[in-house]
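ok trying again, last paste got cut off:
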Amino acid sequence: MNDNTKKTVPRWKQSGAIASETLQKHRNELAHALLETAHLVPRFAKQIREAEDGGTAIGQREHFCLVDYLASWLCDDSNTYRALYLGERVKMAYDASHTVAERNAMTRSLLESDARVFARVLQREPAYVCETVADAFAKMIKRVPAPGAREVRVLFVGDCLHLDVMAFLTDALGSQNIATLPYFVTDKNPVGAASAIQELSCDDFDLVFYSPFTYENGLSFSSLFQMRNSFISENQRNLMVKVLLEEVSIVAKSLAEFFSIPIFIHNTVAIPRYEKGIKQSIRRYASKRARRKISYEIDKGIESIISALNDETFPHLHKIDELKFLKYYTETELGRFLYRFGLQHPAQLGKVIAEDYALIIETVAILNSKKMVICDLDNTLWEGVIGEGKVKHYIERQELLKRLKSKGVVLAIASKNNPENINWDGGILCENDFVFSQISWEQKITAFKNIELSLNLKHKDFVFIDDRADERAMAEEHYPKMAVLNAENSRTWEMLSFWEQMLDPATDIDRTQMYLDRAKRQAFQTKNEVFAEDKATLFSKLGLNLTINSLQKKDIKR
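nice, full thing came through this time. structure:
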């Protein structure tokens, strides 16, 4: 290869690689210097004051990983290690008594202190190294939710998986200015966990994630990974599954009884975290057949528990399917440690589970209280511009909106189009599926005001979906409390799908018909110029019927 055909390495990557090597060179010095940051947290300040070695061991235990994470991030520009660094600072900032705003402010203070410490230690290094590190901290600080962030209070029931998950959640949700306020129940004894859940029942959570098995959690599940259980009989396996599901049922019943919020319960992919060595490889290989069979039996059992509890209460329990990850990753890949030193041992499984968690939390933060979806038409509900020729309907999108409608979400249209051009031939939706329609060349934001006036809904109840950035920007500017989503972003439809799953199933109330009937009554009232003394006569003509039924258990939430 001659000089003209050699690939050049981008300057930012060169400086990142050099900065990474520089950090490793100063690893011990940085770990000790970062005690300055640790002093900002009272519990760590106390430990450092009482340490006989001046905090050297604490610095290595808590800070070697930070130097390594930052070095890895700068070297390969992987957001994985940015998330892990941020996650460590979130853990250090955690205080169960803090509000979301207080926790985020502390996290930001820790990162700003870190930036100053790194700058001081590296001050004799080349300027571009210092600039590279400073830029990295600036990017991390931007991932911390700002004041006024949407807050989601989450109860995590399970083991250290959730500590892995929190690191990636903070990084993923920070860009959306969504903040999670976590609370953890980590008792491996199901009776103890159920008792802790009952004590928290008065707290105002938005979501629950329950991971009964991940990373060998639970009193009985850990025995599955032992060599002596690799060749157990079918009867022994069935007995083990029965015991495991009984433990899950105790905790799940407590969650279903005391919380009326969405509750997500994991099945299990039943993998050990990856350990190098022949003995560990034999252990994984020998136990794989038994683990896989038990994981599928547990999956059926989890679905049965969820179904039974939803029937007893109302549909608010859902499944986190870990088994689906086997379609995309091997067991070794899922169990692989992303890093391991001392108390830090995040693995790939935590990262991929966090992607599902982030989608669920984002859905709750943005869509949980919404009542109406307002859709554009061209390149939103179909591909193409209907006034310019044939269009191709987005069948899956329309089916999803139809399911949302069946669960009480009302639909409306705001489209710049000629009304005579619109037809629904070949689609799933039709004109009667929408309670309001503005198809004209007026600004779309006028539709939102008309909906508020005619349907007695507030714009904070609206979700607006459009493919055009200018229309979305205008909607956000004039109606900041409205959820505005990009029709061309697949995450929009993933969020809507999760929202549909979390909504109650169809009831006897057809809200679309209710709003259509309301519009007819308003038109009838206007037409007949009703005065106060004529209301009794008017109502007698409307043919309204009132039905009174006894309260059922499933109606309690309403």
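cool. Confidence is low (pLDDT under 50) at residues 1-6. The radius of gyration is 28 Å.
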